[in-house]
TrEMBL record:
GO cellular component labels: extracellular space
SMART domains (UniProt xref): WNT1 (SM00097)
Organism: Sinocyclocheilus rhinocerous
InterPro entries: Wnt (IPR005817), Wnt_C (IPR043158), Wnt_CS (IPR018161)
UniProt protein name: Protein Wnt
GO molecular function: cytokine activity; frizzled binding
Lineage of the species this protein comes from: Eukaryota, Metazoa, Chordata, Craniata, Vertebrata
Stated family: Belongs to the Wnt family.
Pfam families, per database record: wnt
Signal peptide: 1-21
Keyword annotations from UniProtKB, A to Z: Developmental protein, Disulfide bond, Extracellular matrix, Glycoprotein, Lipoprotein, Secreted, Signal, Wnt signaling pathway
Gene3D superfamilies: 3.30.2460.20
Localization in the cell: Secreted, Extracellular space, Extracellular matrix
Length: 350
């Protein structure tokens, strides 16, 4: 099995063709055959992860799907940025960028860890896993007394605990000398994994359904529900913008570089290295560069041509945009549309 030469995410290959980057662990490629994992074929799992894989084979598919959801969300959140959550090394989504302990790396760890909690918690509720079921979270104290608690909720408790065990296992098994750069990176990874999990947990909410005589809503059943993953992505993006630069102190702990700011909490993202320059392609840092990226001529933001193209300028093209239009609702029940095309200007970085 091919071992990736660079630290990269665990790549699960569902049906071998579809390559998914998994939780940001320094794991080479792994394979899930026909949707069912064979732990022996999951090359590069750490010792602890292999054990967990054997004990909880039915979980592996959801770990992979959760990580994929995380990555898709990452690419959505960064679609208008110079770094767009892609990589030079196409065998994994993040590839070489992950060698640097930058705030982008922090984000990818957090969002994949979040994706895994999300997927495992949901899989429990849906009865997909043999070792967990509906949430058994305690009834919230502020829930009105006549509302019922106990619809089948997302099992956040289980999802959190399992994914923490699995995703963090690899970091926890590493042994580095206290105070080394590697130990700083390990602490950074663990912190950001936890931040991702906590955001999912913080955003989970009580959801209720009405019962009672036609719409009277005299009776409600409530349960614990995970937030839409987009909200997790949005929240983590804010954490990315306010991520804290860290360094090791003399006792081998991560501390904030700028000590006048409040220390980051467990929900905040932390990083130890400055971001590389994402303007130009650089195989060492894993930057793809922004040449060929679409930009917005009128925007002054990061998606604007000035910033996106890093001052190199842009080319203008005309392209045909085909859209659905003149949609009509037909009884019953479908919508029929025409296709309209219009010519739009596109701006592409030089
Ligand atoms: C990765 O890129 C190489 C060439 O650059 C290509 O041959 C290969 O099919 C790509 N792999 C994937 C998984 O996209
Ligand atoms: C790539 O990045 C490294 C580290 O920042 C830098 O030293 C090197 O000069 C860059 N290479 C190119 C070709 O720009
Ligand atoms: C990210 O940008 C690169 C070029 O810099 C492009 O090839 C790639 O398709 C983009 N990825 C996504 C997910 O938009
Ligand atoms: C470009 O940016 C402007 C200003 O921010 C915005 O109004 C417009 O919708 C953007 N265009 C596209 C195609 O995203």
């Amino acid at each position: 099995m091919k071992q990736l030469s660079v630290p990269s995410l665990l790549v699960l290959k569902l049906s071998v063709k579809l390559s998914l980057a998994m939780n940001p662990l320094l794991i080479p490629e792994a394979y899930i055959i026909g949707g069912q994992p064979l732990c022996s074929q999951l090359a590069g799992l750490s010792k602890g992860q292999k054990k967990l894989c054997q004990l909880y084979q039915d979980h592996m598919q959801f770990i992979g799907e959760g990580a994929k959801t995380g990555i898709r969300e990452c690419q959505y959140q960064f679609r208008n940025r110079r770094w767009n959550c892609s990589t030079v090394d196409n065998s994994s989504v993040f590839g070489r960028v992950m060698q640097i302990g930058s705030r982008e790396t922090a984000f990818t760890y957090a969002i994949s860890a979040a994706g895994v909690v999300n997927a495992v918690s949901r899989a429990c509720r849906e009865g997909e896993l043999s070792s967990c079921g509906c949430s058994r979270a305690a009834r919230p104290k502020d829930l009105p007394r006549d509302w019922l608690w106990g619809g089948c909720g997302d099992n956040l408790n289980y999802g959190y605990r399992f994914s923490k065990e699995f995703v963090d296992a690899r970091e926890r098994e590493k042994t580095f000398t206290k105070g080394s750069m590697e130990s700083a990176r390990l602490l950074m990874n663990l912190h950001n994994n936890e931040a991702g999990r906590r955001i999912v947990s913080d955003l989970a909410h009580v959801s209720c359904k009405c019962h009672g005589v036609s719409g009277s809503c005299s009776l409600k059943t409530c349960w614990l529900q995970l937030a839409d993953f987009r909200k997790v992505g949005d929240a983590l993006k804010e954490k990315y913008d306010s991520a804290a630069a860290m360094r090791l102190n003399s006792r081998g702990k991560l501390v904030q570089v700028h000590s006048k700011f409040n220390s980051p909490t467990s929900n905040d993202l932390v990083y130890i290295d400055p971001s590389p320059d994402y303007c130009a392609e650089n195989k060492t840092t894993g930057s793809l560069g922004t040449q060929g990226r679409l930009c917005n001529k009128t925007s002054e933001g990061m998606d604007g041509c000035a910033l996106m193209c890093c001052g190199r300028g842009y080319d203008q093209y005309k392209t045909q945009l085909v859209e659905r239009c003149h949609c009509k609702f037909h009884w019953c029940c479908y919508v029929k549309c025409k296709h309209c095309s219009r010519t739009v200007d596109q701006f592409v970085c030089k």
